[in-house]
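User: Run a structure prediction on this.
Assistant: Running it now.
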Amino acid sequence: MSDANAPTPPAAATAARRAHPVPKALRGWVIPLLLVALWWSAARFGWGNAAFLVSPEAVWQRAVDYTASGELWVALGSSLWRDLAGFAIGVTAGLLGGGVLGLSRLAERALGPSFHTLKQISLFAWIPLISVWFGLGDAAKVAFLSLAAFFPVVLNTHEGIRSVPRELIEVARVLRFSRWQMLTRVVLPSASPSIFAGIHLALIYAWLATLGAEYLLVSGKGIGNTMIDGREHFQMDLVLFGVIVVGLTGFTLNWIATRIETRLLAWRGRLVAQF
């Protein structure tokens, strides 16, 4: 029996709008705007040391000058080139490695213990070895970023393949699927959410490692090198500008990856619970 007092859909929508007075598209901006307001107030009223806490106006002016001179595009382009090159190499190797470990019991027994040992080594512990093998230039940085992207892809690909429901495998065998059909019609579609999660993580880790590589392997241009220059010359407006660029770039990369993942895995919307 329906409740006579239940709100009609328009009434429910109105109640939801009253509960959330901020439009949905703007809700993600609330905290950033509050932080900017707090930052401006701290700089305006002298709540901190002016040498360390520069004003938003100073950072904005630095952004305008740095962008107009073209230095921003050179630094950001260099960082993104290394990031995407290392990401592509790491993801390709990770998909192959995870696929072999997931599809072959023999490979899992032979290579699994070594892989699980290597993944426990801190990423930055590889820097001395990489710098000896590849020097301090772009090759070393790309190799470092490839490692950052490699491990999450291997782990998630392996886990996704091993998590394929046994019932699906049995049905495919009853239907006499070939090995290729089993792989393309059963294993990969079932494992794809886990695989894409690994690729998404690899994109995030590669961008974070880009800044680490530019801090530790300081040769060349990059947004990390820009922040180092600002620190060495005590130009805090340049340092803060670099931090903002890093955050916005990471947000953009994550947004693009989420859109692509959502589009490619649209079929999951009918199969997973919505909360």
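The chain is about 75% helix and 0% strand.
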